[in-house]
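sry for the spam today, last one i promise. struct tokens for design, 185 residues
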């Protein structure tokens, strides 16, 4: 059996882009930090994320000559039926992978999946495209590391997935890992 990315990801995110764009157009405009000082203050004001029990295994994922920290949760009963790649929210400038530890621990235990959460570099300290590069690195690492397990995608209004998907598809195509459309159709 040939292992390809189209066997890992079930549907086409391109079909979700218009829906996500309409959702964000319908929202009342908010105001984020106006400058780096406000951003540092907003980050400092966040409480520490609650700890998961058992805690995440902290690893460094490497692929394509790049490296990124990841947090890995495996089911308590050690029966792993798949892999879930978690790209935390925060618009590539706020939050951290640790903020999702409780949710990811629960997901690992309830769904019997390994959850790999990407602790991507944040802007503006790390200019674009640092965060998508880190997410791509983690995804490519999973393809190499996870073997024949599947990677269910997060199904949220996240704008991060459509930004990362074409990069992953193109990089994987160049490495001979991709055939066909994103949905394998």
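last one done:
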């Amino acid at each position: 059996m040939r292992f390809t990315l189209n066997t890992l990801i079930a549907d086409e995110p391109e079909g979700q882009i218009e829906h996500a764009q309409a959702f964000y157009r319908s929202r009342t405009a908010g105001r984020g930090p106006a400058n780096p000082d406000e951003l540092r203050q907003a980050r400092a004001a966040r409480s520490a994320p609650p700890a998961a029990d058992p805690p995440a295994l902290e690893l460094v994922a490497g692929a394509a000559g790049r490296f990124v920290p990841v947090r890995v949760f495996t089911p308590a009963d050690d029966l792993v039926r798949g892999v879930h790649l978690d790209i935390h929210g925060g618009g590539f400038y706020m939050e951290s992978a640790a903020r999702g530890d409780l949710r990811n621990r629960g997901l690992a235990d309830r769904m019997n999946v390994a959850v790999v959460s990407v602790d991507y570099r944040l802007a503006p300290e790390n200019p674009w495209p640092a965060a998508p590069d880190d997410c791509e690195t983690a995804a490519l690492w999973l393809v190499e590391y996870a073997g024949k397990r599947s990677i269910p995608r997060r199904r949220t209004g996240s704008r991060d997935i459509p930004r990362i998907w074409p990069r992953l598809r193109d990089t994987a195509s160049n490495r001979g890992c991709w055939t066909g459309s994103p949905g394998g159709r």
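The mean pLDDT is 76. ok im logging off now
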